[in-house]
Amino acid sequence: MNEIWQGLLEAIKLIVSLDPEILEISGRSLWIALSSCLLASVICLPIGGLIHFQRFAGKRTLISLIQTFYSIPTVVIGLFVFVLLSRTGPLGGFNLLFTPTAMIIGQMLLVIPIVLGLTISALSGIDKVIPDTARSLGAGSFQTAVVVLKEARFAVTAAMIMAFSRAISEVGLALIVGGNIKGFTRVITTTISLETAKGDLELALALGIILMFIALVINLVLNQLQTR
Amino acid sequence: MPLIETVDLCQKYNGHDVLKKIALQVEPGEVLSLIGPTGAGKTTLLRLLDLLDTPTSGRIYFAGTEVTRSGKTRSETRRKMAFVLQKPVVFNASVYDNVAYGLKWRGITRNELYQRVSGILETVSLSALRDRNARTLSGGEIQRIAIARAIALEPELLLLDEPTANLDPISISRIEKLIANIIHQHKTTIIMTTHDMRQGQRLPNKVAVLINGEILQTGSSRDIFTSPHNQEIAEFVGTENIINGVITTSEEDLVTINTSGKIIEAIADYPVGEEVCACIRPEDITLANSQAPSSARNSYAGKIMQVVPIGPLCRIEIDCDFSLFALVTGRSVEELDLVRGKTIYATFKATAIHIIRRER
Ligand SMILES: Nc1ncnc2c1ncn2[C@@H]1O[C@H](COP(=O)(O)OP(=O)(O)OP(=O)(O)O)[C@@H](O)[C@H]1O
Ligand SMILES: [Mg+2]
Q1: Which residues lie across from A209 on neighbouring strands?
Q2: Rg for chain B (alpha carbons), in Å?
Q3: Which of A135, A136, A147 sits opposite B91 (nearest CB)?
Q4: What is the CA(A4)–ligand 1 centre distance, in A?
Q5: Contact partners, residue B307, CB within 8 Å, separation at least 6
Q6: pLDDT per position in chain A (228 positions), as tens?
Q7: Interatomic CA distance for residues A179 and A182, integer angstroms
Q8: Which residues of B91-102 are buried (b: 16+ CB within 10 A; e: fewer)?
Q9: B36 and B195 in contact (C-beta within 8 Å)?
Q10: Of A164, B46, B291, B336, which one is least surrounded by beta carbons within 10 A?
Q11: Residue A210's CATH number
């Protein structure tokens, strides 16, 4: 018990003293999760709009399929990206394995279903009268889509935040495609798992506290959005 | 050439005919009021005219060009119109932006945009609220925003779907004034719907009656008010006295009608034996405490069954073998001492009666 208290105290000291290693690891975590989510959003907003506004056979099935992928295990995506990027894999020539780029690609694939699925449900939450109103005022189909997306902006932002929280808290994928290389691909979650295994609890606890803090901030922002 | 014209326009929903062969012609500058009971198909028709939906069959011409189905002409044509939906919604944005959207889509320069939007907000007296989120406005204010953003587009054709439904009398008169102003200043062609017969009479110069998906009568509001083509229209336009009878004599435009033993004289031309309804507007009936002088042809003694105040007026139900409703001022009620159970003489002129053939 004493050991834990000791560890916690040391952890807080590390955070308060702005330990360079902690800053570096946390910064990388944030950067990788943020980039993957932004990329996923850039891809998913137009596709989500397309799926929502177009009528086609199998639309419902497609949406259920997307929702199924919300909870795909991170190690499965990790394995898939690993195979894709490994030296003998189809994209091996780019030498991306064990780089932050590989981690961004992996996390992007991981959160695409979430951003896509939640964007579609955000759009369907908008009253049918909104697109009618836009069209009756002379909006073309693209302009109408933009109007509806704008109306759904809070729900869409919430989708992006959900994606971010999944990306920053996952460990399996970061470990498999990042390799947990010190000073290069080490992020909060992989460091925690490594340091804990090594028995060095101070650093692990400090990073754990930071991750909890990030989760808290995410929750506060989400709550704000949902009351809009 | 009509600005908008429909030919045999039909719309079906789930195998149910909502609109049946609508033939409508509206000339430039004309103001048409579509009146009809709820569920008649008014909104459905306006949505077709604004090219938001595609009809099951039939054609729509805008300024002589067919626009029913072709995708490109449809969106171009839609930009020449503006449609205020029945239950308007505002975008989750400021009042200013709500009015500005349609203009932005038309690629209007920033400077002109500002001028136009400010001017319109002035017109609808909402300048003070320009930066408010439109979602926080009251129903009447939202209705004004909806009209403002439509007229800001200076459309050739303005479609208004029940612009005053669910509003209080002050908001209604405010919006009617606004519409009257648009008619007066811009000479915009307008098609508006209402199920308030009186509004149809207050505002526009032409009225079409839409009942059950069919246009049953088109004409001046006075025509429709005083000479409805059939019983359904008569009932809808508030002809409260619709009395069934049979023509007993007919000579030189003067007919007599037998109705439950009493004789009514009217100006009309129908053969003897024809089954008809005599329509008398309640305000055309005068009441007196003594038998009227002989010049008035139709005068009946009856018992007052009910006295119901309606605003400044009173609606009196009289039983003179057939039941008769009269509309009189509150002052007359006092002067004539109209109370329930009293016997009174009800009189109406032969010219105040509108005769329609009864449908079997
Ligand atoms: N999209 C739709 N799908 C199925 N039925 C519809 C649809 N739109 C309208 N209807 C039906 O068509 C009929 C006419 O509706 P419409 O809204 O045009 O009536 P309205 O004259 O505007 O009535 P109100 O005065 O109540 O607004 C109604 O019976 C309605 O249920
Ligand atoms: Mg309607």
Answers
A1: none
A2: 25
A3: A147
A4: 69
A5: B314, B315, B316, B317, B333, B338, B339, B340
A6: 687 888 888 889 989 999 999 999 999 999 999 999 999 999 999 999 999 999 999 999 999 999 999 999 999 999 999 999 999 989 988 999 999 999 999 999 999 999 999 999 999 999 999 999 999 999 998 999 999 999 999 999 999 999 999 999 999 999 999 999 999 999 999 999 999 999 888 889 999 999 999 989 988 988 888 776
A7: 9
A8: bbbbbbbbbbbb
A9: yes
A10: B291
A11: 1.10.3720.10
Protein residues with CB under 6 Å of any ligand 1 atom: B 13-14, 18, 36, 38-44, 86, 195
Say how far apart CA A95 and CA A208 lie, in whole Å.
31
Report the number of distinct structural domains present in chain A.
1
Contact between B174 and B143 under an 8 Å Cβ cutoff? The reply is no
Domain housing A54: 2-227
Nearest atom, ligand 1, residue B36 CA: 21
Using DSSP bridges, classify how beta strands B254-259 and B262-267 pair: parallel, antiparallel or unpaired: antiparallel
Tally the residues of chain B.
360
Burial of A56 (0-12, 13-18, 19+ CB in 10 A): exposed
A178-199 CB burial, b ≥16 within 10 A, e <16: bbbeeeebbbbbbbbbbbeeee
Instruction: Sheet with B322-329: list strands edge to edge.
Output: B286-288, B343-348, B298-310, B313-320, B322-329
Q: For residue B168, which amino acid is it?
A: D
The position carrying tokens 């612009």 is: B163
* ipTM of this predicted structure: 0.80
User: Residues within 5 Å of ion ligand 2 by Cβ?
Assistant: B 42-43, 86
